[in-house]
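Structure ticket #2291
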Amino acid sequence: MKRLLVLLLVLVMNQAYAENGKPASAGYEKWKKECGSCHVAYPPHMLSGENWQQLMKHLDKHFDSNAVLDTRDNSLILDFLKRYAGSGERYSSASLRISDTPWFVREHRVISENEWKLSQVKTRSNCSACHGKVVLGD
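Resolution: structure written out below.
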């Protein structure tokens, strides 16, 4: 009986980890592959679900690029993004730019305008300039 309880506990803990750890889903793999093929696959928690919905709805005009996906891939990625999206106004941006969210602005308030313009940085969306392991999902 004790073995059965321990086995059940382990199964429940594994499921909890799967829900809270790195997602192991088709949406996660598609997000990593499709979004990461052009830029850093920005973590879902950096924008609100509503922002992700708007962003994925207009991939034909994705920041001056056409990033249209087939319907199935779009749906898988959007489901993943919304499931792990940030909540609240601090993860929301009218421009749909992560760098315009209150969270991003607050976290990066100590960086001067001159630092943003450095040749190795160039833009606020170049996370890996300062956060080197970001491309590895860290």
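Closing remark: The chain has a mean pLDDT of 84.
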